[in-house]
Amino acid sequence: MNQKRAISIAVWLAAFALLWAAIRTVPITAVFHTLRQLQWWQFLILTLLNGIILVLLTARWWLILWGLGFKLPFIMTMGHRLASFGVSYFTPGPQFGGEVVQVLLVEKVHNMPRTTAVSSVALDKSIELLINFSFLAAGVMVVLRSNIIDGGDGDGGWKTAVLALSLLALPLLYLIAIWRGRHPLTRFIKLFRPLFHRWERWETTFETAVSGLSSSEKQAGDFCRQAPRYLWAALAVSVLGWMAMVVEFGAMLTFLGADVSFLQVVMVLTAVRIAFLFPTPGGLGTIEAAQVLALTQLGFDPAIGLSASILLHGRDVFLGLMGIWWGKHFMTK
After folding, report:
1. How many angstroms separate the CA atoms of 20 and 291, rounded?
2. CA angle, corner 316, sides to 59 and 136, nearest 5?
3. What pLDDT sits at residue 83?
4. Measured between alpha carbons, how far is 271 from 265 in angstroms, rounded to an integer?
5. Which class for 61: exposed (0-12), middle (13-18), buried (19 or more C-beta within 10 A)?
6. Other Cβ atoms closer than 10 A to 274
7. Distance between alpha carbon 211 and the CA centroid of its chain, in Å?
8. Sign (positive/negative) of CA torsion 186, 187, 191, 197?
9. What is the 3-state secondary structure (H, E, C) of the chain?
10. What's the whole-model pTM score?
């Protein structure tokens, strides 16, 4: 058994162990009872809210592409982004990997230069991470003020806050760097040049990749300086997308029977998003454990947390499968 296969098996075992630990604390009958309380109009509202979120998150990349000179059909852009999500969602790891699919789809389907495709995806991902970690940092601060971590001493909470702020700094510093004409990723990759120069057959490939990445980062920097209105518009729709996520999550918990306040919604959603960063496919096991723990700490029925996890996974699996179908259709067409 090679190392990669062993790591993959270990990740799946960890996911199922966390899932089993969450399920053991909640009677399955209570979960079924909670889900049966949902009405058809509540499903409709959640579906509409999720559609709004999908449109807003797609609009960010669509605006970036428009600012780079490529006005793609919005539906096509949404399909390409779903394909990226499908690959990232079903791949063990910290929810990355689908970005390559985004690049290949716009390059193949719309004849976009690879450097432009890479620039658009890099900018899209940087803004996504910036907004995501901004929310996580704010959410952790809300949790700290509530004194529910570490029995109120806050030590573990502050460690989490420092981690969230550190992660927030990465995409922020990257955007500032390319805005000022720097090429941080290219400089980082060049550190490995001596390693690739030991093998002659890889040397040309490495230099070609470095040249392409440098061109992409230059184009991204030009975009930030010459088309700032598109950049600010992309940031604005990202913020609106997160606001819609909070509304959707709060509506889902309310429909399942939890009389949650706005701050409590933010606290539980923060736990879910942190759990989603763990290297399990689709956050399997970690999301269930996080929701059950968070809602129990807030005094709610843990069956609501497990029920919410079922709805979240059902939604994401459906969207992920749609994305996989879309990507397969256009990559093999």
Report:
1. 14
2. 70
3. 94
4. 10
5. buried
6. 19
7. 28
8. positive
9. CCHHHHHHHHHHHHHHHHHHHHHHCCCHHHHHHHHHCCCHHHHHHHHHHHHHHHHHHHHHHHHHHHHCCCCCCHHHHHHHHHHHHHHHHHCCCCCCCCHHHHHHHHHHHHCCCHHHHHHHHHHHHHHHHHHHHHHHHHHHHHHHHHCCCHHHCCHHHHHHHHHHHHHHHHHHHHHHHHHCCCCHHHHHHHCCHHHHCCCHHHHHHHHHHHHHHHHHHHHHHHHHHHCHHHHHHHHHHHHHHHHHHHHHHHHHHHHCCCCCCHHHHHHHHHHHHHHHCCCCHHHCCHHHHHHHHHHHHCCCCHHHHHHHHHHHHHHHHHHHHHHHHHHHHHHCC
10. 0.82
* CB-CB neighbours of 223 under 10 Å: 22
Q: What is the mean pLDDT of residues 4-26?
A: 66
How far apart CA 134 and CA 271 sit, in angstroms, is 14
List, for residues 150-194, the tens digit of each pLDDT value. 444 445 555 655 665 666 666 777 777 777 777 787 787 777 777
